[in-house]
C-alpha cells in the first residue's frame, strides 16, 4: 500500500501542507504489514500553474499508484479526479508528517466524503 502526504519539504518532521494542489511535493510512504518500509519525496509539477494545479497533482498521485492521500484541503476538481481514481482522501490540520502517518496507521483519520455518491439513494 502507498500513501501520499502533501508537503513543502522532504523533512519527515515538517508539517503536512494544508494545500493539495499547491504543495511543493508529496511524501510517498510505502506501508507493508502496518509498518512504513520506505518513503520518498516527489515534486509537484502543478504547484506554480496558473490554473489546474489540483488536477495536475491528482494525476501525479494516480500515476504513482497511490491508495490514499493525506492533506489539508482538496479543491473540487482534484477531489473528483482523486475519487475517480479510487484514491481515498484524508484531511488533517497542520500536524507533523510523522503524526499523520501514525494516525493513519492507527485508523484515526476520517475519510473525506465521496462526492460521486453524495445525494444518491
Can you tag this structure with a few keywords?
5 strands; 121 residues; alpha/beta; Nucleotidyltransferase, domain 5; 3 helices; five-stranded mixed sheet
Characterization of this structure:
There is one protein chain. This protein is an alpha/beta fold and 121 residues long. It has a single domain (2-105), classed as Nucleotidyltransferase, domain 5. The protein is 24% helix and 26% strand. The chain is built from three helices and five strands, in the order E-E-E-H-E-H-E-H. It has a five-stranded mixed sheet, with helices on both faces. Strand 2 and strand 3 form a beta hairpin.
Report the average pLDDT across residues. Answer: 91
Q: Nearest-angstrom radius of gyration?
A: 13 Å
CATH class: Alpha Beta
Sheet with the most strands: spatial strand order: 3-2-1-4-5
Proportion of strand residues: 25-35%
How large is the count of helical segments? 3
CATH homologous superfamily name?
Dinitrogenase iron-molybdenum cofactor biosynthesis domain
Structural class: alpha/beta
Question: How many discrete domains?
Answer: 1
Which sequence of SSEs, written as H and E, runs from N to C?
EEEHEHEH
What sort of overall outline do the alpha carbons produce when their principal axes are compared?
globular
Residue windows where pLDDT falls under 50 for at least 5 positions: 117-121
What's the CATH topology label? Nucleotidyltransferase, domain 5
The helix fraction, in percent, is 10-25%
User: What is the CATH architecture annotation?
Assistant: 2-Layer Sandwich
Largest sheet: 5 strands, mixed
Count the E strands: 5
| Distance, first to last CA | 31 Å
